[in-house]
Design a protein that fits this description.
heterodimer, A: alpha+beta, Rossmann fold, 2 domains, 26% helix, B: 13 helices
């Protein structure tokens, strides 16, 4: 395949991705539907009265810390757990009570769960043989899958003769071979190193587009969820906190929990002073003499205690005050500097003792940076950089 | 460096010396006796080697060794070949029964809640705390015509008091005795193999459309095969040479090589023939042992 064609494919994929938004279409019928699903293990409530719709061809991510119920939610779709209450439908059919071996879902397991006594070929062919597919068709499908994951040369190997990355590919090929209605991915890249993980994320996206399948991924890695998914559901204690596109989740978190869980964030306590359409004025607790203006509609009333979420990359740290008087500004002292290579993270202590983080890209190769420890600095951000959180 | 190498040799030497002193040397003595001839003397065979008598006497004694006893044992006129065959048959059937009984038990143990497993394991090992001989004797009390089993069946009205079940002194009693006595040796390797199996493999099989019973044969069974082979050999090998169980529970027509060997040695007082029987028994058993070791070597390679 020449690079020209590859580029074109990429562009097409990008084009489809940009236009894809069935969740905004009131006519669209969801492929997967959780309706008031509750799952209890004894006293422990793993999933708490949860409803969620996932659409065909969607790459959907369940994101949350361990124990938040995301894996249970996925295992209920695969059939390994039955909901205590509620209903799960796949393509309009009620799934509750259907054993896993009769469901049109396939799962890629976190541990890969490859059959150690079978070759790569037999692992991939396993599900097809269960369907009593004829031999020629099985051979063709396995070949196709091996090609898809670039493991043609490893068909005769056993899983223990493969590297971690190769095993991951076999697991993916095996779960894709039956062309399931939904592919479930349980922390699929957790065992890979960072570089391989990033490469594989893009490959997963391309495979998903190429096969036109619905993928549901469970992960605790927010970067992974942001990279691969069309929509992300952030979960906490068995409930959905926010379900939206990655950019919305990141830029418009609906709660402290989401802001804090997804990406790096400074959360400043503040009191609401005035509320106008499209603009809120607040008095930060850390610097009560200052007023911050945040450009957003807000349901809070004057006098309410709220939080301002500020991403470090949207804050500037300078030795001089900003020329533009419209921006929010606060003075502080450099407490610590984290040099990451591409970025430096400045930890600034505000007069009230609260510390905030501001990221500054290192645009030049100068080793001596103008801002150093104990410098008095100005931290500032524009009104559209922050988000007021009322919950 | 030198001291490190010496240390390693010392560590390696211990098991070799152990095997040399307690296996190879006694075996060579038995082998030598099997090549000798019976004598009414002390010791009850000749020739004997005495290094004090010099080289010529040694050579003379050596010339008197022969394979005559092996010819006697392997002759169709005598019962030995039949006894070997019957022993292999009884041991084979017993091993099969052990597998049929032991596999479900080991499977149940391996799938039991983790907190319960040590207790179950303890219960399997518990019979070892009583003497093997006493446990076999106890079966006489259970299986005899007036024994506990028949009493129970009378009480339940299943059988007539005049016609008790004749189990004691039959091959059935031998099977019961072997299965009972050897069961832990079957369960433990099976349990070890089944317990380390990753249960998500069964979830993966179900996920790919395989119902539970088929998944057992396609996943669990092949993965437990090393345990099956280990358990079968651990039971089969000692069962072939078993003496106590056929002697106490078996009938006069239960023919097993262990019993024959004992008769040859204690009743017929033929050290030489019984030695030949023992050496041949070892040869018969070496074949499955070598087979097992090959299997283990392949297993190690696979990791």
């Amino acid at each position: 395949m020449s690079t020209g064609v590859a580029e074109k494919t990429q562009k097409t994929i990008g084009g489809i991705r940009r236009k894809f938004a069935p969740w905004n279409d009131p006519q669209a019928v969801p492929l997967i539907s959780y309706k008031n699903v509750t799952k209890r293990f004894g006293e422990f409530v793993a999933v708490d009265n949860l409803s969620l719709d996932i659409y065909e061809r969607e790459f959907f991510a369940l994101l949350g810390p361990s124990g938040c119920g995301k894996t249970t939610l996925m295992r209920m779709l695969a059939g390994f757990e039955d909901p205590t209450e509620g209903q799960i439908t796949l393509a309009g059919q009620d799934l509750v009570g259907t054993p896993p071996y009769k469901r049109q879902t396939n799962m890629m397991f976190q541990s890969y769960a490859l059959f150690p006594h079978m070759t790569v070929w037999d692992n991939i062919a396993f599900g097809l043989k269960q369907d009593r597919m004829e031999k020629g068709a099985i051979d063709a499908r396995v070949e196709e899958m091996l090609k898809l994951v670039k493991l043609e040369k490893f068909a005769k190997r056993k899983p223990h003769q493969l590297s971690g990355g190769q095993r991951q590919r076999v697991a993916l090929a095996r779960s894709l071979a039956k062309r399931p209605k939904v592919l479930l991915l349980d922390e699929p890249l957790g065992a890979l190193d960072k570089k391989l993980r990033e490469e594989t994320q893009f490959e997963l996206m391309d495979i998903q587009m190429e096969l036109g399948m619905t993928f549901l991924i469970v992960t605790h890695d927010q970067e992974e969820a942001m990279t691969v998914a069309d929509r992300i559901a952030v979960m906490n204690q068995g409930r959905l906190v926010q379900v939206d596109q990655p950019a919305v989740i990141y830029e418009h978190p609906n709660s402290r929990y989401v802001a804090d869980f997804v990406g790096d964030v400074n959360i400043l306590d503040a009191t609401v002073e005035t509320v106008e359409p499209g603009m809120v004025t607040l008095r930060p607790v850390a610097a009560p003499e200052r007023r911050f203006r945040i450009a957003q509609d807000c349901a809070a009333k004057p006098g309410d205690s709220v939080a301002i979420a500020l991403r470090p990359e949207k804050m500037r740290v300078e030795l001089d005050p900003p020329a533009d008087t419209n921006v929010n500004c606060v003075q502080g002292e450099i407490w610590d500097i984290g040099y990451l290579g591409d970025l430096s993270i400045y930890h600034v202590e505000l007069p009230g003792g609260v510390r905030v983080k501001a990221a500054k890209p290192n645009l030049t190769r100068m080793v001596e940076r103008p801002i150093t420890w104990d410098d008095k600095v100005y931290v500032y951000f524009s009104p559209d950089a922050g988000v007021v959180l009322t919950s | 460096m030198a001291s490190k190498a010496t240390g390693r040799w010392l560590v390696l030497a211990v098991p070799y010396l152990w095997l040399l002193a307690l296996f190879l040397v006694p075996f060579l003595i038995v082998f030598k006796i099997s090549l000798s001839q019976d004598a009414i003397a002390q010791p009850p065979y000749f020739p004997t080697f005495d290094l004090a008598e010099g080289w010529a006497a040694f050579k003379e004694a050596f010339a008197e060794l022969s394979f005559e006893n092996y010819g006697y044992v392997l002759s169709w006129d005598n019962e030995f070949i039949e006894a070997y065959g019957s022993s292999l048959w009884i041991a084979g059937i017993s091993t099969l029964l052990l597998l049929l009984v032991g596999y479900p038990i080991a499977y149940g143990m391996a799938r039991a809640p983790k907190s319960l497993r040590p207790t179950l394991l303890m219960l399997v090992i518990l019979p070892f705390w009583t003497s093997f001989l006493i446990r076999v004797y106890a079966w006489i009390g259970i299986l005899s015509p007036e024994g506990l089993l028949n009493q129970l069946l009378f009480a339940l009205g299943i059988i007539n008091r005049d016609a008790p079940l004749q189990i004691l002194n039959t091959d059935t009693a031998v099977y019961i005795g072997i299965v009972y006595s050897y069961l832990p040796f079957m369960i433990l390797p099976l349990y070890a193999a089944l317990e380390k199996m990753d249960e998500t493999l069964l979830e993966a099989a179900a996920d790919l459309g395989c119902p539970p019973f088929a998944a057992f044969w396609k996943i669990t069974w092949p993965l437990s095969l090393p345990g099956v082979f280990a358990g079968c050999l651990l039971c089969f090998i000692p069962a072939v040479g078993e003496f106590v169980i056929p002697d106490l529970l078996g009938g006069s027509d239960t023919l097993m090589i262990g019993k024959v060997l004992w008769t040859e040695f204690s009743v017929n007082r033929s050290w030489t023939v019984s030695s030949a029987v023992a050496v041949l028994l070892l040869l018969v058993l070496v074949i499955p042992i070598v087979f097992y070791q090959n299997l283990q070597a392949r297993e190690v390679e696979r990791r």
